[in-house]
Amino acid sequence: MVDPIAFALAKNSAGHGPLMLMYHSVVATGSPEWPWAVSLDRFNRQLDLLSSLGYRTATMADISAGTTVATDAPTVVISFDDGYVDNLVAVETLFRRGMTATWFIVSGSIGGEPAWPYDGRPTGRLMNATELRDLSAAGIEIGSHTVSHCRLTEASDADLARELADSKSTLEDVLGREVRSFAYPY
Questions:
Q1: Residues 142, 80: contact at Cβ < 8 Å?
Q2: Residue-wise pLDDT tens digits, 11-25
Q3: What does the longest C-alpha to C-alpha distance in the chain come to?
Q4: Based on the number of CB atoms within 10 Å of its own CB, is 185 exposed (0-12), middle (13-18) or buried (19 or more)?
Q5: What CA–CA distances, in Å, run from 38 to 24, 89, 147?
Q6: Can you name the residues that pair with 1 across neighbouring β-strands?
Q7: Judging by DSSP bridges, how do beta strands 141-144 and 56-58 pair with one another?
Q8: How far apart are CA 155 and CA 65, in angstroms?
Q9: CA–CA separation, 138 vs 36, rounded Å?
Q10: Residue 6: pLDDT band by 50, 70, 90 thresholds?
Q11: What is the DSSP letter of 171?
Q12: CA 20 – CA 11 distance, rounded (Å)
């Protein structure tokens, strides 16, 4: 069962624009220790709730293009920040329900350990280039989440421009397609 607060939020948000859900990590077994992570079981229950309430998923590109306004169904954008490899279990469960999502990737750590400060985040690597290409080919939107996961409010103008442009460029090189979405770290 999904907690009553989540149920009320999902049920009452319909008709007020898209519901936006952001995740970082999906833990396949056990309970997550990081507050920005969710267990696979809880994630499945959340998706089942959305499905039972008639939600359809859209990507950030869909929302930006206005392609979701023609439907009467409530819309949810599901996003994942950073690009942890444990997110791959989420893809399988989304696809089983005919859902999609947007992944925002820190381009400077593709395939490696996160290069930003440890704050209790999951251990392990981020998705590699092959995994990102496979996701993109399967219809998952890949967006930018900067090069280094820095605090953009503390970046110089030159660093800010580099973080945004280089991340987009790197991801486009990896994917062989345009990257149109961006999520602000922190």
A1: no
A2: 666 666 788 999 999
A3: 48
A4: middle
A5: 8, 12, 25
A6: none
A7: unpaired
A8: 30
A9: 25
A10: low
A11: H
A12: 13
Q: Fill in the amino acid letter for 138.
A: A
pLDDT above 90 for 163: yes
pTM attached to this predicted model: 0.90
Lowest mean pLDDT among 5-14, 49-58, 107-116: 5-14
DSSP, collapsed to helix, strand or coil, labels residue 39 as strand
Residue with tokens 């399988």: 92
Q: What's the N-to-C CA distance of the chain in angstroms?
A: 30
pLDDT at 2: 62
**E strands of the chain, at which residues?**
19-23, 25-27, 37-39, 56-58, 75-82, 102-105, 141-144
Tokens matching residue 124: 């392990």
For residue 108, CA distances in Å to 34, 129, 148, 160, 186 come to: 22, 12, 6, 14, 16
Q: DSSP code of 177?
A: S
User: How confident is residue 5, by pLDDT bands cut at 50, 70 and 90?
Assistant: low
Mean pLDDT, the chain, integer: 90
